[in-house]
Design goal:
One of its GO terms (cellular component) is extracellular region. It comes from Chromatium okenii. InterPro entries: CalX-like_sf (IPR038081), Calx_beta (IPR003644), Hemolysin-typ_Ca-bd_CS (IPR018511), Hemolysn_Ca-bd (IPR001343), RTX_toxin/Mannuronan_C5-epim (IPR050557), Serralysin-like_metalloprot_C (IPR011049). By secondary structure, the chain is mostly beta strands. The protein has no helices and 51 strands. Strands 1-3-5-7-9-11-13-15-17-19-21-23-25 form a 13-stranded parallel β-sheet, with no helix packed on it. It starts with a strand and ends with a strand.
Length: 500
């Protein structure tokens, strides 16, 4: 039975034994000393000090200051803005209503937070400070030296850890839980939760509901049981990630390259990089999105969309083991052998969109278009020129073609002048560009199998001495071939003599 004090401003000091005081009204100062004391402030702005041993302090109404002292104390601020100091020991601090300031000291302390203005301080780091817990019914970010966070109530909340090794527990709502640094353990419990372990090797448990896991380390552990969740997703920025059991979806974030499914019907989504995605067992949906992706549905009837880029789908059998049909631009690929002989996987019937190539153990489909051969032009050596001599420019095809190859060449006056210093080909026409320079345009034809043709440049001889002059020959507009980087030759003439 508590001893009731007056309604005035009382000062009371207990004994070394067990004391029970109720301050009633007024601004009271009550000290318990030793013993397991119960101190109640009542109304007014009270100061309660439990002293040593395990004390129970309750501020009630008013702006109270509660000091637990040494021992395992329970501090309840009650209404208004209170200051709570647990001291040493394993303390429980609940500021109650109002914006409260709570400090635990040494030992494993537990704080209750219910107001955005509540402040929790743990100044002692390491083992002396203990392993501390905040129970919060509001969005909360753990302060320094506090290890654990549990969200309470039914409302979906956001709970964020710190640089410690955190244990974070959600409530029954749809929570957003973030671990930040070190190796964290995060439990979503009920609800559709988003769980982000941050850096470190984290253990993430979604519980009931459709949960989203954000991972940055391929060693992160995700726990989903078969009876929990409906459609769970991993969003991974790890270089490579393989889905854990009972998780259906995998989305690659920036920095991730490769993703592997599991035995469920997975949905795998790539990013803008060149991804490698493998569905594993189940009827999977694989989306390469941007990048040049390598995709593998593996077992089951899969839907594969390469997206942008040059994408390829991998099959483990030879091309004769599959039936390939074109369905209005999409491919349907049927494994006709199933599990047979050396083929231990039934790759089912796949529908493929936005993919450039199917790759089998013995070839690809469709067969690649032949690469056109390159065309180059170069000058044949000529030591000395007389009138009527010709400079020969050799145009070369890098390999024989099965088709006729045509290429246009154009001369461009630089300092030499066509029909004054030189003439090209057999035509009688020449043209002028906007600068007044004369130029000639002709066409060379390679018959199938030919690899060399020549452009003949005639030099005109006169008695007037002329300095070094130049003109150029450029290959353009190739048909059934491509132009190499060596598609321009510059010809030099010195006094009507070929120079180089």
């Amino acid at each position: 039975m508590a001893t009731k004090l007056t309604s005035g401003h009382d000062k009371k000091t207990g004994t070394a034994g067990v004391d029970n005081f109720d301050g009633s009204g007024g601004n009271d100062t009550i000290t318990g000393l030793a013993g397991n004391d119960t101190l109640i402030g009542g109304t007014g702005n009270d100061s309660l000090d439990g002293g040593t041993d395990n004390d129970n302090l309750r501020g009630d109404a008013g702006k109270d200051k509660l000091v637990g002292g040494s021992g395992n104390d329970v501090l309840d601020g009650g209404a208004d803005d209170d200051v709570l100091d647990g001291g040493n020991g394993i303390d429980k601090l609940n500021g109650g209503a109002g914006a409260d300031d709570m400090k635990g000291g040494e030992g494993n302390d537990t704080y209750t937070v219910d107001n955005i203005g509540d402040k929790v301080t743990e100044v002692i780091a390491g083992t002396r400070g203990g392993v501390d817990l905040v129970n919060s019914s509001i969005n909360y970010i753990l302060g320094a030296n506090i290890e654990n966070l549990t969200l309470t109530g039914l409302k979906g909340l956001t709970g964020t850890g710190n640089n410690e090794k955190n244990v974070i527990n959600g409530n029954a709502g749809d929570n957003v839980l973030k671990g930040l640094k070190r190796n964290d353990t995060i439990n979503g419990n009920n609800g559709d939760d988003t769980i982000d372990g941050g850096s470190g090797v984290d253990s993430l448990v979604g519980g009931d509901g459709s949960d989203v896991y954000v991972v940055s380390n391929d060693e992160d552990i995700i726990v989903e049981t078969a009876v929990n969740g409906d459609d769970d997703e991993v969003q991974s920025s790890a270089l490579q990630y393989e889905l854990n059991d009972n998780v259906e979806r995998l989305t690659l974030l920036d920095g991730a390259e490769n993703g592997i499914g599991n035995e469920l019907d997975n949905t795998l989504d790539g990013n803008a990089l060149d991804n490698e995605l493998s569905g594993g067992a189940g009827n999977d949906t694989i989306n390469g999105n941007e990048g040049n992706d390598t995709l593998n549905g593996a077992e089951g009837d899969d839907e594969i969309n390469g997206g942008a880029g040059d994408d390829v789908v991998i099959y483990q059998g030879s091309i004769e083991d599959y039936k390939i049909t074109n369905d209005d631009g999409d491919w349907v690929v049927t494994d006709t052998t199933g599990v047979d002989g050396d083929d231990t996987v039934d790759e089912g019937i796949d529908t493929i969109t936005g993919v450039e190539q199917l790759r089998f153990t013995d070839g690809v489909y469709p067969e690649p278009e032949p690469v056109p051969e390159n065309l180059t032009v170069q000058i044949e050596p000529l030591l000395e020129g007389n009138e009527g001599d010709a400079i020969r420019l050799m145009v070369t095809l890098s390999a024989p073609s099965d088709e006729e190859v045509m290429v246009t060449y154009t001369t461009q006056d630089l300092t030499a002048n066509v029909d004054v210093d030189y003439w090209v080909g057999t035509g009688d026409s020449f043209w002028y560009d906007d600068a007044g320079n004369e130029w000639i345009e002709e066409t060379i034809t390679f018959a199938a199998g030919e690899t060399e043709q020549f452009i003949l440049v005639d030099l005109y001889l006169d008695e007037e001495f002329e300095d070094y002059e130049e003109f150029s020959v450029t290959l353009t507009d190739a048909v059934n071939a491509t132009l190499s980087e060596n598609n321009v030759a510059t010809v030099g003439i010195m006094d009507d003599t070929y120079y180089y």
